[in-house]
C-alpha cells in the first residue's frame, strides 16, 4: 500500500505558504483597499495581520492535536462534531471554488487596463483556458511553471518597492516615516479600517494551505504549527511594509482606474518602461497563483466527489493524465461567474467562507484543549481560551464588516450547504459523510 513520504522541512513549508499567498497581490488590490479605507491601506493590513495571527495560533494548536491533511474540516470534525465539520469544509470549499476566479479576474482587469482595445472578458477566458489545460496535464508541469513564475513576481515586487523608496526620497517633501499611511490623510475611522481589513484578509488566504501537507512533513506536530505562524507573520509584514511605502508615494485614494491603480503608481515611480515590467510581473504572479489555486481546488472537489460528499460519477473520477479533469473543468466553469462580478464583491464573497471557517477553528481549540482536555491552568486559559476567543471575535467582526452583497451571497451558500447535508443524511437519519484527504490516487 502506498504511503505519503515525510520529506518536507520547516523552510520548505514556509516557502510553500508564502508562494501560495502571492505577495504581489498587495499591489493588485491596492486601489480597491485605498478607496475602502480612504487612503489608509497599511492600517487595514495591520488590523488584518493581528486578527490572522490569533487564528494562525489556533490552526497551529489544532495541527498539533490532529495532524491530518483535512485542515478546518478535519479540526472541527475532530474537536466538535461531524456536522459542524461538514460546514467548515463547505465554507472552505467556497474559498477553493472561487479563489481562482478572483485571481484571474484581477489579472484580467490589469490587462484590460493596459490594452483597452481588447475586452476584459477575452483576457479572463484566456486565463481560465490556459490554466485549466496546464492543470489537466499534471502537477509536475504545473509545479515547474509555477516555480519560474514565482521568481519573476518576487523580482518585480522588490523592484517596485525600490523605485517607490527612490521616488519618495527624490521628492524631498515626504518623510520616510509617517503615521499618515496608517490613518489616512484626513483621519480614517475604525469602521473604514475594519471594512478595509475585511477585504485585506483576502491576501492572507492560503496561510493555512500548509496543513494539507501535514502527512508529508517531518515531525508534523512541531513543524506545521511553526510554519503557520511564520507564514502569517512574514506575509503580513510584507503586506504592511509594501502598502506603507506605496501609500506614502501615492497619498489618498484617487485613481483613474481603481481596479488597476498600481499601473498608475508604477508609471509615476518608474515611467512607462517600468509599467511594462510591472505588468509582466503582476500577470505572471496572478497566473502562477491561479495554477496553484485551481490545482488545490480541483483536488478538494475531487476528494469530496470520491467520498460521496459531491456526486461521485461526475466529480470523483480521474482522467487520462491521472488528474481530476472533471473537477478542474468544474472549477473553470465556476470562474465564468467573474464575467458578471467585480473584484471587490468577489474578494468579499471569498472572505465570507474564510471567516466562517476561521471562527470554527478557533472554537475547535476551546472545545479540544480547554473543555475536553481540561487545560485550565494559567497557560491553558491564555492559549486555549483567551487567544482563540479573541481570534473568533476578530474574524466574526471582520465578517460583519463585509459588504451586504457578499454577506447575502455567503448566506445563500450556507443555505445550499444545509440543504445538501439534509439530503446526504436523509434528514439527519444517516451519518454525515466523512472525507479522506489522501493523495495516493
TrEMBL record:
Record keyword Transmembrane helix present: yes
Domain of life: Bacteria
Record field: transmembrane: 12-37, 43-64, 84-111, 117-137, 144-168, 188-207, 227-246, 273-302, 323-343, 349-370, 382-400, 406-425
Subcellular location: Cell membrane
Presence of keyword Lipid biosynthesis: no
Gene Ontology molecular function terms on file: transmembrane transporter activity
GO CC terms: plasma membrane
Pfam families, per database record: AA_permease_2
Record-linked Gene3D superfamilies: Amino acid/polyamine transporter I
InterPro entries hit by this protein: AA/rel_permease1, APC_superfamily
Alphabetical keyword list: Cell membrane, Membrane, Transmembrane, Transmembrane helix
PANTHER family found in the cross-reference section: AMINO ACID TRANSPORTER-RELATED (PTHR42770), PUTRESCINE IMPORTER PUUP (PTHR42770:SF8)
Protein name from the UniProt record: Amino acid permease
Phylogenetic classification of the source organism: Bacteria, Pseudomonadati, Pseudomonadota, Gammaproteobacteria, Aeromonadales
